[in-house]
Amino acid sequence: MMTQITYETSSCITSGKKPNVREQAIKNGISSMTDKELVMILLGTGTKGIPVGYLSDEVLDTLENSLPYELPKTLSAIPGMGPGKITTILAALELGKRISSKNSKRIKKPMDIIPFIQSYSLRKEEHFICIMLNSAHEILKLKVISKGILNQSLIHPREVFADPITERAAAIILAHNHPSGNVMPSEIDFEATKKVLEASRIIGIHLLDHIIITKTDFFSFREQTDLFTE
Fold first, then answer.
1. Whole-prediction pTM value?
2. Would the N or C end of the chain have less CB density within 10 A of its end CB?
3. Model confidence at 74, in pLDDT bands (50, 70, 90)?
4. Residue 198 in 3-state DSSP?
């Protein structure tokens, strides 16, 4: 039985009009904002010739593809990102990390991980995510492995386990979104899960689950298939 989750969406004002994301955040709740809109709030404005929406896209792409120690340099390489905007982004990341570490939660069931990945249900393309856990099943790190239509080459075990090995993770949870809204797994989803599960048993880093999310539902391979009982 699938558990219903709620994630209200909001639309960003475009078409040449100034994005009114702050008012939308107050009206709809900050949790209703997309990642892009949250970055837009942090940046405040764009710069001459560079709209804040475009700048936010560049910042998000950089955040997803840079290691933490690289961020000052990679953010500086984005046209329009001056010291003020860079330090605002870095401060928000550091504050989030500190608060998260104070409120670290042990992942005991699929529902526990949903708040950490729910924002990806708003993405318009598939994002394949690896959540790394310590021996107490507390989150160490979350990493986007690939973006786009999932196939077995994009989620090869060597890509999945590279960061967990570096982070000395004891276990991982895989997750990806279905922008179509259909939460049911495809044949490729099944095959990819089998491949990573087999590798996890050899490597010794346990694959606890593979979760598919949409804006309203989630699907747990551990709870809703027999793959993990083989």
1. 0.65
2. N
3. very high
4. helix
